[in-house]
């Protein structure tokens, strides 16, 4: 769309047409907000949070937003989405109702509440669209400031595409790094640490990011004086302002009701960020919130009469209307006519969305009622079936819960009758069909998912010597960076010194500071860099120095990365690899074992726990051929251990979700992973001395877990099970036990009680003895296995204690 600043090139009539079109979009958005609130209050929608009061600045942002650009935003940006042509009236209401059809609610197919916006980056088969030919929005999340870390990565991708050689052919992702990442946030949410961490990082990295702060002086009911020092975010960020000697931000302040000033501000910001790769902060002040924060309550409860009167006067739509009249863009009568026409259009769009939402469900309702009536005619329980059928028939606007619940209750009544099979089959088919609408796409369903990659074993020269294992990781990364020019790694100490364990030694010197980069101590935005760059077609490896520090980033991993494919119903992906190191070192903060917390917080990300560096390297090689995110936990105490050096670096692949049997045995199956396996192997040798033959299985992958169900095959032979884990009791060991006993039905083969051996409930103490007295030791494992066998055969294995 032509910028208003270029009006000299337009005739007055063309210029007027453009302004009127903007006004129509703003009014449409406002009417959607007003009617949307009523839909919630009448019960048709569950919750509403709208963009009223923010319409005019979003028009300005949309004018400066170009194909290839990305938005990472705030759940009040509906006007912007309408202005860039990515949301219609009907789609707005479909999102409000939670329509599970992606064609009706393209933002999330009903998986997120309204106000959470996204565009489609992927084709139906999961392959990338041409992102430079469309306007893009990364998928929103609700946690305040949660959009900030990914915004950093979206902007950094442009810097990479502009400055790294070898990826210039990826023109469906970037044209010379000219794309801007546009961020939006409410003023109250700038109090979050993620906002400040991202702002600082963007200033350091000097990336093309334009950050808009929508400032209406409140965070729900809490005034800015309780939120922000000096009640002014741009004031306290003045130290970031660039000058002749120092790089930094360009900071712009503009009134949110001043349409021409907003157009100028956004055009200026766009030019600076796009051409110079300098981040820009736009503080949009004096905005209003006509309906309050959300449908949860009224803003009259916390705003005084003076504030409410000011908001009515300085409502951005009112001020835009006054400006248009004053400049002869339109007469009051013309604008009133536009307003009335749009009200009708929005009402019709709302009705169409509601009909599209309820009609399929009504058809499903009729289908079940027909089946129930047929069954009732030949049933001894006809009266009861008809009661349920009539109750369902009386529901004018049913939901699918009503339908399926009714069917399942009737099934109980006819369990011994002939009609049972017909109804049972209908329930199974209906459940399978409908459940997918709510549960698909947690992981990739494309032909590049992790199960598409076959195992390739490492090869060795006959004279292969044992080397420090960190050299295997190093040389494999060298092969990766050479093979995949779009790969890059970044983290604390990852660059100049080649990471704290020298797994990246010499890589920065060879591949440059942009591909092998040091970053500041800021784990959340390290993850955000990775998510944003992965959303734009790069293959980033984000390094978190120690597993325990992952907790700084767990919210971003859990709320953003892990849910991305799910909440977009497979329309966006970010195949980020997270590299860290953990297991069995010293003390509370470097012991690396809160695995239960991690695997239950990040469903949607694969969690890989290789026992050595060859296995770890193989996982990286596998992941780079897939389109899914994963966490790889290298063994912290394994870098100096000796392993043979493979000859096929970059090519051997560790299969994901496949366990490995390290030792066969007949008496008991021991299941473990990571560094603890070395203790299990030692205990197994000592147990063999007293005649106990242990089978050892390396899990290798916690998510996914043993997809071939090989562990239960072991139990069929040994009939006993011990899970050994260095997490707290009830952590990863409980998860593993549930997978084996419940999912794999391993209980059928057990002759002894299944047992777990975990660490103490506290974090490990420091010092040489800290590990021994805090986590399972060789003796602990030996004695646990011995006690199980003692119960089986006390005469052969008399009790030790």
From TrEMBL:
It comes from the Bacteria. InterPro entries: DH_E1, THDP-binding, Transketo_C/PFOR_II, Transketolase-like_Pyr-bd, Transketolase_C. The keyword Oxidoreductase applies. It is an enzyme of class 1 (oxidoreductase). GO terms for biological process: branched-chain amino acid catabolic process; response to nutrient. GO terms for molecular function: branched-chain 2-oxo acid dehydrogenase activity. The keyword Disulfide bond does not apply. Its cofactor is thiamine diphosphate. Residues 467-641 form the Transketolase-like pyrimidine-binding domain. Keywords: Oxidoreductase, Thiamine pyrophosphate. Its EC number is 1.2.4.4. SUPFAM superfamilies: Thiamin diphosphate-binding fold (THDP-binding) (SSF52518), TK C-terminal domain-like (SSF52922). Pfam families: E1_dh, Transket_pyr, Transketolase_C. E1 component of the 2-oxoglutarate dehydrogenase (OGDH) complex which catalyzes the decarboxylation of 2-oxoglutarate, the first step in the conversion of 2-oxoglutarate to succinyl-CoA and CO(2). This is 3-methyl-2-oxobutanoate dehydrogenase (2-methylpropanoyl-transferring). The lineage of its organism: Bacteria, Pseudomonadati, Bacteroidota, Flavobacteriia, Flavobacteriales.
